[in-house]
Write a structure and sequence with these properties.
The complex is a heterodimer of chains A (about 270) and B (about 375). Chain A is about 40% helix and about 25% strand. By secondary structure, chain A is α/β, with parallel strands linked by helices. The two termini of chain A are about 30 Å apart. In chain A, helix 3 packs parallel to helix 5, helix 4 packs across helix 5 and helix 6 packs parallel to helix 7. A 6-stranded mixed β-sheet of chain A has the order 6-7-8-3-9-10. With about 375 residues, chain B is of the alpha/beta class. Chain B has 2 domains: about 80 residues, STAS domain (Transcription Regulator spoIIAA, 2-Layer Sandwich); about 250 residues, no CATH class. Chain B starts with 6 loop residues before the first strand and ends with a helix. The chains are: A alpha/beta (about 270), B alpha/beta (about 375). The interface between A and B is medium-sized, with 38 and 30 residues.
Amino acid sequence: MDMNGRGETIVEVKGLRNSFGEQIVHENLDLEVRRGEILGVVGGSGTGKSVLMRSIIGLQTPDEGEITVFGEPMIGRGEEEGKDIRRRWGVLFQGGALFSTLTVAENVQVPIREYYPNIGETLLDEIASYKIVMSGLPADAGPKFPSELSGGMKKRAGIARALALDPQLLFLDEPTAGLDPIGAAGFDELISELRDALGLTVFLITHDLDTLYAICDRVAVLADRKVVAVGTIDELLALDHEWIQDYFRGPRGRAAERTAGAAARESAES
Amino acid sequence: MNVAAADFSQSEENGACHLRFTGRLTLARIGDLPERLEEVHAEKLVADVSQVERMDTVGAWLIHRLVRDQGAEVVGADEDQALLLQQVAQSDQLVKVRPDRTPPLYRVLGQVGESTSVALRSLLGLLAFFGALLIATWNIIKHPSRFRFNAVVQRFEVVGVHALGIIGLMSFLVGIVIAQQGAVQLRQFGAEVFTINLIGRSAVKELGVLMTAIMVAGRSGSAFAAQLGAMKLSEEVDAMRTIGVSPMEVLVFPRVLATVLMMPLLGFYAALCALVGGGLFTWISLDIPPITFVQRIREVVPMTDLWGALIKAPVFGLIIAMAGCFQGLQVEGDAEEVGLRTTTAVVQGIFLVIVLDAFFAVFFTEIGWI
């Protein structure tokens, strides 16, 4: 464990059970997220990736189980009590979830205004500006309303808002879905740069194999209502699980592996 | 854990102003640092961040501002901090937070112009929509197999049967209110017995149909707009078009037909409910027995009142259903627009109904249906 506490457990889920009526989504699910890592969460459609994220951030009350974030238990915490924890994480929802009546820049300012009302207007505007540019949006996106943005730009604006409070923990729900490949690669790069610079921990739900190969330190596989395996991609490939083999050994998995291999060789040569 | 607030000390060394930062340069601990930093002005600035415990992008931004505005030199930054500073510096671009504001006068003028053009365009749009509906109707008449019987019957149920309870209750109450208020006024002239004329003529001629139209606009017109709007948003309507199914025939026609056919029935039913309410009041309060009430109603309400109402009702139904479907299909963009369009559909529907009602009133008087 180094000075920043890298490797320490920052999110811990134990014995989680979620169900909607008759349908059980999670049963006895365990998962740990370590500080400073980018944890990719994969799984087929309907395996409850988003539900898991919503359970951790407190939008969904699980039937059973324990969830601790930053060492604090999350279940049964009220709106007000959870505020201190909530400002230490940022969340990007699938569709961006921007507030439609505010401009992009104002969206970014919302969390800052909420938690730090004493920050001056000039500084607020400047913070919004660099967050927007950092998230890869063009400068003229600032005064636009969400309805004027494309899907990819909405996601970037969502990231800018998620990063507003300089969180330690970032939850991303399919951040690269709907982005063009160049944009997606830029996004991967952005996430990994921010992780390095800010010591971010990232909980990343994704279907994007390129993202998994490019930036994820570990990958958690959701199947059969729980996390069936967690590890680096190489570790996962060594496992004899049908879904994991299909996922990583399928045509798309192999293509992503080749790209990742080529990129690694290139950076080794230079 | 020691959480020191961000702070800095100032000292002169070798003719340069040294700013030594300490504590946590983070958003949570920034305090009044931004204001204090703004007062620092020196020819040569050195920002020493070696004592900083933690730095986030906001801290890095403040340091970057010194570098940008006053050419400060940063010393003592470790690898992570240097990366952060570099990141922030790369992101330094002027971004506008809000759209430019126009002066109030221009804005008001602009809004007036825009509303006028929107009103005219939606009227034209409605006319075009009516045309498209006629074409769709003609197509269905030419190819009766395309007529979706089940869809229409289902709409009958939603528009008509499900509305019976609320429309009946509303009309019943309105009947009582008119009887009661009318009786109070007419009593002053000793003409209480004319309360029956008042109830009979107003309920059959105007109120039954008008109140029903307002209720149907609120219940079904809004539902049409919201349903079609949601379908437009989820691209269901586009999917239909690409498959070759006409949304006019499948979505709009059954709704309009159901409303047109249901409106006269509901209007007649509403008039009856109002008569029952009024009759009940006159019986209890004015001691006029129901048999006399019915007899009087037959004498004072001419058949033309009922014909007029039954002629108006389908026209009102057409307008309400068309406004609902038209606005629903205009939805573009986001979910907020569904709400806006739904409101517009109801407002437009009721407004046009009342305007037409005025025309009908004049027309019926002119042809002698007094």
